[in-house]
Amino acid sequence: xxxxxxxxxxxxxxxxxxxxxxxxxxxxxxxxxxxxxxxxxxxxxxxxxxxxxxxxxxxxxxxxxxxxxxxxxxxxxxxxxxxxxxxxxxxxxxxxxxxxxxxxxxxxxxxxxxxxxxxxxxxxxxxxxxxxxxxxxxxxxxxxxxxxxxxxxxxxxxxxxxxxxxxxxxxxxxxxxxxxxxxxxxxxxxxxxxxxxxxxxxxxxxxxxxxxxxxxxxxxxxxxxxxxxxxxxxxxxxxxxxxxxxxxxxxxxxxxxxxxxxxxxxxxxxxxxxxxxxxxxxxxxxxxxxxxxxxxxxxxxxxxxxxxxxxxxxxxxxxxxxxxxxxxxxxxxxxxxxxxxxx
Length: 343
Fold this sequence. Notes:
Zinc Finger, Delta Prime, domain 3; Rossmann fold; 5-stranded parallel sheet; single chain; 9% strand; 3 domains; 343 residues; 59% helix; 5 strands; alpha/beta; Helicase, Ruva Protein, domain 3
């Protein structure tokens, strides 16, 4: 049975299952799901907890031994088995099927690890455990779902702010719920009265994050060449992966292209901003970029972005931030379209 993370706490109000499969590439959701399960298990008398990790030295018979052994201090236990790849191998698969065929009402077994594909979900061991238990897929939360997730967390902490501020926080932490939770956790300390406006939140995030790719993008859209290059090399010194910066540039290129193309078809910017859910605080940045960039300027960027993406995947670039500077200058625009990238 599949239960999504936002419904998992509600599901745990009932009788616990013998098996839980918690997999995905969103660590915050996995941490919370496991903590919620631990809490529910303790309430139902599962006071003993064992942790096992599948690595090159792991012996699968130890899982059977753990499931059969009982502590002197507790008659019920929860076994947490970390399976990083989600693939137990031939011996592990047989062991898990065997364990599933001999369930113990006093033992809960929790398997957790990174994202798994359809091949794992269609395997015999997974289907056997899933039939008797619960599968919790923990995938990144994005877009409006992320904003709703943040809004709910702020509400729980009795923090009141605007939808625009929530969107800012979502943009800052997109793809990283752990960072979003850390930001939310610090807000009651900075604003004890629970009232936070957009500028206050913007300042709080800036103080914590220093330079980040989102700030770089805003400066890039505004057309400030000197500050863009300064921030770009600061990001390099802080160890930001070039692929993250390229992702941000590609996303802004896509937005600018869609806006410019629609604008030339006679659509109004104000309506486009509403349709594309571009918040008012960023509309002036896009307006400035659209005013200085022609459609041909924007179209010239696409092959450069694609070439750098391919180069990064092939590890063919000695100084990727030099090439990123080149791409940033095209957003100004600077007459660099005919210059070949250095790889």
